Amino acid sequence: MLTWLKKHYYWIILIVMMLQTTIYGGMGNTIASIYTIPVTTDLGMSRTDFSLAVNMRPLILFLGMTFSGPVFQRFGVKKPMIFGLLTLTVGYVLLSVSNSFSWIAVSCALAGLGEAFVGTPAISRVVNTWFHRYQGSLLGLVTACTGLGGGIYSVLLSAIIQTDGWRTARFVSAICLLAAAVCIMFFLKDTPAQLQLLPYGKGYVPKKKAHRRSDEHWEGYSFKELLRKPVFYLAALTFFLAGVSIYSAFTTIAPHLEDKGLSAADAAFINGLMLIFLAVFKFACGSVSDIIGSKLVCIICMAAAAVSLLLLPMVNSVATAIPVIAIYSLSVPLTLVVLSLVTYPLFGYRSHDASLGIFLALPYAGSLLIVPITNAIYDAQGSYDLVFRLSAALSVVVIILLLIVYALAKRDRKKYEIQQNSKGE
User: Fold this and answer.
1) Buried (b) or exposed (e) across 370-392, using 16+ Cβ within 10 A?
2) Which site among 3, 121, 131, 253 is 20 to 30 Å from 391 CA-CA?
3) Which of these, 146, 188, 60, 66, lies nearest to 336 by C-alpha position?
4) CA-to-CA dists, residue 293 to 243, 342, 378, 414, angstroms
5) Cβ(68)–Cβ(80) below 8 Å
6) Considering the chain, what is the average pLDDT of its residues?
7) Whole-number Å distance between alpha carbons of 422 and 418
8) pLDDT value, residue 134
């Protein structure tokens, strides 16, 4: 039995990653949404101040993800992940006893630092190290667990908030995160070689199919070469603006629905449902990217953002909220799964490890900008509607920018390949 488990340890790695992602993702996806009203009411804090304090999480997450690549290259992935989960645990313990803006800000900063080392860059590195086959589908499957966890914990923690208060809910979150750290400590291995294994699917070459995008597989630029490409910076701006558009609504769904007349229980249910939809769409986007190409999936995600953000102000019941939230959920995988994959056809494999943390950090930087603006406008107008409409328009701008990035990247690739061929001759 032990020999069989060792031989098939890939699947233990996959299960462990799914478990820890369910836990940390569930906490991260509910860090603000279901707590906004109970915390601001209990502490007499404005939503603007609360959002500014909570915004320390994406700020530190942005900085941490930017430098996560070198950390993983030096220490492997296991030690940084354990550090990340323990830091998250401390952050949530502090959140459970916080009584002021400053303590909430410090606690959320610790949560952001922890997430930088357990989030998508770490997940992507583990999947790419252990699996050489089905990478898109498996990356989608693991990251989908953040939405699954969000759906589960949104309902569970909302119930705890109603019965025992928001502080107890925060402390329960800390216990779950500590359990995830212990799990990673005992079961995660940095590489298959530690168990005398090869990566799953090592040497597998996918059959060429008519529908498979040929530009999904090329060597590409070195990171130094990439930094000299103007299209790199235009792509960075585009992904930043995508984060601004998409995250304008992500943490405000539950309070927005309550403002529209839904009960707290119904709003929590819809918020949880959104995260379950998100889990499904993360896996779907990863799998579909393997078929039609990640660049097209990016466009589909942004179109979903434009439509759903335009419709959100019109929601006034559970029946109207469900389809709109389902469409909105399709947009969010762009900032996680699809963004991890689209850098391959745009810039190639050589620069992927060095640039991935930067690109994944950019949508979080966008949330840093839009979340306090969203809540400031709410405090001024008593509604999120204006922000959602402006974000819908911005989504259309992002689609146009994506098309420009694709065209410029294709042009640069042709020039680069001609130069490489001429050198070879």
Assistant:
1) bbbebbbbbeeeeebbebbebbb
2) 121
3) 146
4) 21, 8, 38, 19
5) yes
6) 86
7) 6
8) 77
